[in-house]
Amino acid sequence: MGRKLVGRRDFMKSTLAGFGGLFFLPSIDKKQEMKMVEGKEKERKFVYRTLGKTGLKIPAINMGVMLTDNPNLIRTALDSGVLLLDTAHAYMGGRNEEVIGGVIKGRPRESYYIGSKVNLPQDRTTGLYMEGATTEEFLKKLDLSLKRLGVDYVDILYQHDVTRKESVAFEPVLKAFDKAKKDGKIRFTGISTHGNEPEVIHAATDSKAYDVILTAYNFKQKHYGEVRNAIAKASQAGVGIVGMKAIRGGYQQPPTVRNITASLKWILQDPNVHTVVPGFTTFEQMEIDLSVMEDLTLTEPEKMELQKEASLPSLYCQGCRECLGQCLAGLPIPDLMRAYMYTYGYRNLGHAQDLVLSLNLPDRVCEDCTSCPVKCSIGFNVSRKIRDVVRLREVPTEFIG
Amino acid sequence: MKERQLVSCFLFVYLTLGVVHPLWASNSDWKAFAFPEVTGWKQSGEIQTFTPKTLFEYINGGADLYLTYDFQELKVAEYSNEKKASVTIEVYRHRTSIHAFGIYSQERLSDANFLDIGAQSYIEANVLNFVAGPYYVKINSFNTGPDDREILIAFAKKVSETLGERGALPSILSSFPEEGKKKNSEKFISKNFLGYSFLHSAFTADYSLSGTTFKLFVIESAEKGDCKDMIEKYLQRTRNPGQNISEGLFNISDPYHGEIDLCWKGEYIWGIFNAKDLALRSKYLRLFEEGLQKRK
Questions:
Q1: B24/A contact by beta carbon, under 8 A
Q2: Residue B113 pLDDT > 70
Q3: CA–CA separation, A51 vs A302, rounded Å?
Q4: pTM of the model
Q5: Which of A140, A318, B81, B180 is the most buried (most CB within 10 A)?
């Protein structure tokens, strides 16, 4: 697939030393539209943006439905001002679309928007489509999605999970889009990516085949600058931009970002991002997300917190993988560093032990070398941390579970 | 310093008790797991392995849901035959059999065609999924033509044998009243039940009786105090103050879910929602309690 390894120089760009004026954009779009939204209990004023050439005016934050089958949560989100529900043919084996179908039944079709995604068989190693990835298969899946949702059309249909520029202009998918548009089954074409995003975004923009791009984008991406540039070019070309992974699983345990509000504001500082679709699963989380739309301004304490969080590489392995191949025993160092992080960072000993046990390590680990040749890009004493964490092998599982 | 304290704590407990849990064995079994050989088919490519950190590379946005069900590891193998048909086998290992059932139940369509493989399984065109112990197995076929069903079943049986444990559905499911229960509607929600973070996990089932559809649920806690804590928080959240927090029946006016009746006894909270008929609510809470008592 040709995934790019991140070198030390690139890595440092995302640390405090590399911030300069890039980490925060100078100001958000002053022309953005505020719109009064009648909620269940109160009226609120939300930031609205126009999704590129689609012309759809949507709130800056909408809902990624992929993690919930709670119809009342989805219903409440719609009643509170959310307009766009983001789902996929494959989420929950199709149940996700069914649950949405139950919620929207009886609502005026123009009162909400649906974005769904369809994928075709891909070679997991190369990221390229395989034999059998056909127009017919794509349309068959779309028809099933429409049936599950109980609608005649989806507003945006994405080609799901694209990581290679070659797949962006994959003829069978483009043909399927043409036919689906002609048949009135989709309003707008889209493409989703959360791997090798800049390449995919540039290719999608150049192809002129897409109305919307759904992309991973957050302040912890080592290449957020490249993503930002690609998004800017796409947006200037009229492509609507939907952001995802804005909080990188921040509502999960352990959370991957510390300040959800600040993380959402960070991505929405970029005026080229027209909306984001966080996957909330509780009413509290929904309320946090919606409240961000009332004022996108990053406060000074929030800025400091984001900067601090983005500049904490020395606590945990950053996955640059420069250590691979350096260990004489061929130990899977990034995995072991992750186990170390689970142990001391997240206090998730079960997770750490399972990971260590799954690595099929030799009996003697880091005991036979007189000196360690591994040079960690952020200066970890790798062998010390490995010797420490592999002791988890000796602890009976029931003490941890 | 903290690191030392943590490891000292491990070692103290380990040395004091000095016992080894059977779960070690299941880890060993997993290590030894090898995808089966199937006559007429050969494995193409290498077996791929994904961890919680890398799962998104395989199933992208769908990975987040698996992580909420304590996903541990995924192994994937692809097979092909001379007719250019292919079969992909995905074996997801979760931390417990309940979590494996949970993610399986989230993806299971209740009107699917069920089979007798593993603890439960179902088949559709080009898809066969089953759950067995802590494993959730998904088999997908491509270009298999009219023999699709036979091929999927043959692969599923081989994988099931190789995993070595058939497992069983969570025993608490037998506590749900049978009358009116929609077949195969039982689910395990691993967290944020009803959209509230303080209500952790729950088992649910859908019911339909004389045109009325409603839902039953049970929350099983490690200790009684947890149940009290959950009810207290629920009452606060739904602005239902003044109810005495002791074991018994609670009626909650939930702004999002409507009227919910729930009972608390010991380590269990069970309840009913989407049902307007008081008599029906009362009847089902009683039947549920009887089911839970039988379980004990």
A1: yes
A2: yes
A3: 27
A4: 0.78
A5: A318
